[in-house]
Amino acid sequence: MTLCTWLCSPDRLAYNEHIPPNWYRVIWGKALKGLTKKQIMNIRKYVALKTEAGCHTLIDALLLHVVSNISTSQATGAIILETHIPATLLEFAQTSYGGVVDYKIVLGETWAQKSIVQLPTFAFMDKEIVNALMCNIYEAKPEKSCAALPQAVMAAVVQAERFGFKTFRGLVTTGEEWLFFVYNKYATRPGGTVHWLLPIRLEWDLSGLPLILGLLFDWIQNGREGKLRFCTSCQKPGDVEQ
To answer: Which top-rank group of organisms is this from (predicted)?
Structure first.
């Protein structure tokens, strides 16, 4: 079964109605009146965002803000650009995948983060380093984010298989529009399911910014957690195999 067919049935997600409505504003309130907001307005004014390089400029501003603010003395974040994924055969899907991921975001112990920043290609070959990390993949597309979801999910599936992770989170973004997803492996059989939120827009008044930053925080901090803290399923999936 092809990935596109497989993606037609899994759950969509909705924001959990039990979340305090201002939870993301409390965490990331400084962004609304700080440097990130000014950066976004300047990028919109001076950068052509319809090109892939242009949309990367906007994405970089948000990701750098989150990674720099999420880091603590115990755990440090890092951004790895254009990570190569070697061609990997997925026997249960009767297909293979290989290519380049635009962004890989990691959070882990400082010693592991330093190895990733200094030697990203070799560091991901070290099982001890990989086990010390939370890890997400992000794809940047200047057009609609939904069209790139199958490609991004396939990359997440391959990474989960390579690293032995039961859960792998990621997103697809144009910079203005952000689509978050989670891939969970089946516990007792090959394959898995993917859940995703409907795309969230920054909006011209940046009213979507705090929610996007809050979800980025959660995605990075809980990259290997299958249970979502701030979202809930709004549609029961069928019994679908990849």
So the answer is: Eukaryota
Residue among 82, 28, 81, 38 nearest 61 (CA): 38
Residue 14 in domain: no
Render each residue's pLDDT in the chain as its tens digit; 242 residues. 223 323 333 345 544 444 444 444 444 444 445 668 889 999 999 999 989 899 999 999 999 988 888 877 788 899 999 888 877 777 666 666 678 889 999 999 888 888 888 888 777 888 888 888 888 888 888 877 888 888 888 888 888 888 889 999 999 999 999 999 999 988 888 888 888 888 999 999 988 888 888 889 889 988 888 877 766 655 444 433 33
Cα 185–Cα 149–Cα 161 angle in degrees, nearest 5: 30
Closest by Cα among 69, 1, 79, 80 to 35: 69
- Coil, strand or helix at 93: helix
Q: How far, in Å, are 37, 96, 154, 240 from residue 189 at the CA level?
A: 46, 18, 18, 12
Q: Are 64 and 43 in contact (CB under 8 A)?
A: no
Query: Is the overall model pTM greater than 0.70, yes or no?
Result: yes
Domain count for the chain, please give it: 1
**Does residue 241 fall inside a structural domain?**
no
